[in-house]
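WARN retry 2 of 3 for item q-0093 after timeout on previous attempt; input resubmitted unchanged.
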Amino acid sequence: MQSRDSRRQTEPLIDLSSPRHCHVVGIGGPGMSAIALLLHQSGHTVSGSDLYESDVIEQLRREGVSVSIGHDASLVLGKDVVLYSTAIPLSNVELVEAQRCGIPVRHRSGILASLCAVRHAIGVAGTHGKTTTTALIAHIMGIAGQSPSSLIGAEVVGAGIGAQYGTSEYFVVEADESDGTLDVLPLSSIVLTNVDIDHLDYFATFEAIQECFVEAASVATHHVVLNSDDPGSSPVITALQGNSRVVTFGTRAGSTFRIENERSSDLGVAFELVHGSDRALVASQLRGHHNVLNIAAAIALSISVGVSLGTAVGAVATFPGVMRRFTERGTYDGALLIDDYAHLPAEIEATLLGARSHPALRGKLIAVFQPNRYHRIARMADTYRDCFATADIVVITDVYASGTPKIEGVTGELLVQAITQAHPRATIVWAPSRADTVSAVKSVISTGDVCVSMGCGDIETFPDDLTGGVL
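OK item q-0093 returned
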């Protein structure tokens, strides 16, 4: 396996101080569509290509971005820079033609670094909770009149593509570690939500993941916000111990922003946040302890850049959330359907705990999970054995590839076996196809149940498939 240094070398920054014509390959993806929209809103000319039409592409066109369906070498001619993500192979005809013509080609990490370099960049990093925390910080700072630009890898409820151009020096960005992006971003401030095991195809070991976050936090030039409750963040906290730029959040005594008296309500979650001699009651439409931590992190960063505690708390109450983060998707046969992006054990456990406290739950809690990426399941299948314990019924589908090559013998059955061995009395259903999954849920769901479908693949269509009668 290649080292991180050899897999992602720092690319020269693109000068964005004057208008450029930027072409985005794979523009319909959640991360690339946001970059495209932000560049367009910043005054650059943006074009792009993708394989299929989508609602996101239609939104980009309405904003004035030119999008072609299908990849064609001629599309890059005359462009100043061509952008791509890890999902795009280097053999793509547009990338090949751009390199042949001497047109600068940049991975998404390179263009994000260029965007960060010209502003006070606030990066939100960590294994879980990045998207929600990034969107919440941007929301709070926007309410406070600080007009930040922002870039996140998902749609904010009611706002569409996760990009917003602001007039101030601030740029709030979701900083992904999975492909080396975090390594190259020149961040002024950083929030580290937590550190957990993932992306072992890139990092190889958990210690390498922790080292990545230690390095990122150490080179941030202004504020560093860390999770005092998270064991995985301990090396980062230790490395920066005594640094005046560091503030912490969590339930532990001594946290700079301390969480107390957390409770669920019909509307969401509420808790008290203690900061020095100040104490504030925080109420949110979000659910679950994981979101309490996300909220505390967002407030901590916002106060660090000058937002008052009262303004931050008021903004949290109006934050609508992010799509596919505990999104209610209607009902079926009297049961509530919830869609969530959770795809790692800690995320699944947190989502199901949030569902268990939902006021609509008067019957069974049904969990439907689509494993993601063959290499992840090959390395981590056993780590999923306990995370479904809150659910009454668990339905496991086959693996969604997400562009990764198939590994012989790696299927969703590995999770079924791991859960069954650890919890022999658990009700586990193996439903490899979508029709199997719909049939399995229809056979058990009833009034008062809550059904949570989870994963970062095409499982997001499951609520529609269930209510639409897919067989």
